[in-house]
Amino acid sequence: MELEHHPYLVPNIFLFVDRRCYPDWTIQKARISFHDLTFVIEGKANYYIDGKKFTAEAGDLVYVPSGSVREAHTFKDSPMHSYPFNFYWAEPHNHIQMPFQGLTKKVITKEILSYLREFNHVWMSKQPYYHIQARALFELIIHRLLTSFHRNLPTSFDPRIKKLTEYLTEHYSDHMAINEIAEGLRLHPVYFGKLFKQNTGMTFKEYVNRIRINNAEMMLSSGDFTVKDAAERCGIQDIYYFSKVFKEIKGYPPSAAKIK
């Protein structure tokens, strides 16, 4: 079951530790009622999930879903250093599983590692309201993992594309010509197109249209704008093209957004 169909999932983290294993470290075999998401930073360990063996190394992610039988031990000559999160989804959603296999190789990027270290600082310092900040950081980590998994995207954005998407969020109504954008980034238009899709899962045109239509939907649902006004404010002058794209993306015509 896909997590995107469950927008109300809330993780309740009850255990997190900067785990630096000693050579004889183990987790005894037992069935768990929570979810275990472990990021391996250094060393190696064997995990057994429902009897299946996984060898986790630096850069890997281990996921043990609620209801699984879990067992683990580290390598004596290469003790594992990891950041494990043990958490429940707030009821009644704890049965929902994330789409990862028991072991996902090489997913820890500099971005994710920085989130992990910041989480460790927040969790250990326990300042007022730290649970809120910790949960937000954990959800950022989960979001980065899930979007990369869902779209088969790289786990870190090319900084040029990241900066561009931030710009598009604020200037979506402006004229957007792919040749001009590519020239501004000093990239060949064909290479820019491939790079953009590798990082976002969409073509440049699809991405811009989605931002425009999402903003148009918010305008229309407020009841303060006509379809023509919303289209023009989002940078689309052709009302027929706007209606066509709106329905392709949303599944219903823009006129229906006013009554949703």
UniProtKB/TrEMBL annotation:
Determine the domain of life of the protein's source: Bacteria
Which Pfam family is one of those matched by this entry? Cupin_2
- From the Swiss-Prot or TrEMBL record, give the protein name: AraC-type DNA-binding protein
Record keywords, A-Z: DNA-binding, Transcription, Transcription regulation
What SMART domains does the record tag this protein with? HTH_ARAC
Q: Which PANTHER family match?
A: ARAC-FAMILY TRANSCRIPTIONAL REGULATOR, HTH-TYPE TRANSCRIPTIONAL REGULATOR EXSA
Q: From the Swiss-Prot or TrEMBL record, what is one GO molecular function term?
A: sequence-specific DNA binding
Q: Where is the signal peptide?
A: none
Q: Which residues form the HTH araC/xylS-type domain?
A: 162-260
Q: Indicate yes or no for the key word Transcription regulation.
A: yes
